[in-house]
Amino acid sequence: MLLSKQAYIKIDKEIAKFPVEQKKSATIASLAIAQEEKIWLSADILEEIANYLDIPAISVQEVATFYRMFNLKPIGKYKISLCTNLPCALREAKKTGEYLKAKLNINYQDTTSDGLFTLIESECVGACADAPVIIINNNRMFTKMGKVEIDSLISKLSSNNEKFE
């Protein structure tokens, strides 16, 4: 088995929320649990989740590729997701993205050479009034991100002064 015993215990709790014949309904939660443990979801992990849920592997693949929160290739320690949808774009998200790319010396979908940061564009995160919005590792939101705020955040993350559990 590719995941820990603890991961399967968590997945079993998710499966238990649905009727026995609807184990497929636990796909998203199962992928999130696997990603929490493994950081990214390899083809082997997707297949293992499919087998564990007793569903076709393509069903898991469809979910994993549909939602951008799932990492299907290795990523950095910190995944920086920048919302670039229209409301954020109207509030400088494009300039924010250009600044981040220059600061990190990478493009979207790339990881820094030290393996610390991966930069991606994200879909709307529902904080349009506070744009530009950055989410770190799918779970910590930062709003009104200008150059000063970005510099501070990158500095904290680089020195491991911030915890993102």
Give a description of the structure.
The chain has 165 residues and is α+β, with helices and mostly antiparallel strands. It is built from seven helices and five strands. The protein has a five-stranded mixed sheet, covered by helices on one side. It is 44% helix and 12% strand.
Describe, in short, the structure shown:
With about 160 residues, the protein is an alpha+beta fold. Helices cover about 45% and strands about 10% of the residues.
Question: How are the SSEs placed, and which strands pair?
Answer:
Elements lengths: L4 H11 L11 H12 L4 H11 L3 H10 L11 E6 L2 H4 L3 H12 L5 E2 L5 E6 L11 E3 L3 E3 L4 H12 L7
Parallel strand pairs: 1-3
Antiparallel strand pairs: 1-4, 2-3, 4-5
Oligomeric category: single chain
**Morphology:** elongated
Taking all Cα atoms into account, the compactness measure Rg is 17 Å
Distance between the termini: 24 Å
Strand content: 5-15%
User: How confident is the prediction overall: mean pLDDT?
Assistant: 92
What is the helix fraction of residues, given as a range? 40-55%
Task: State the strand order across the main sheet.
Answer: 2-3-1-4-5
Structural class of the helix and strand makeup? alpha+beta
User: Residue ranges: pLDDT <50 for 5 or more in a row?
Assistant: none
Task: Considering the chains and any ligands shown, give keywords for the structure.
165 residues, alpha+beta, 5-stranded mixed beta sheet
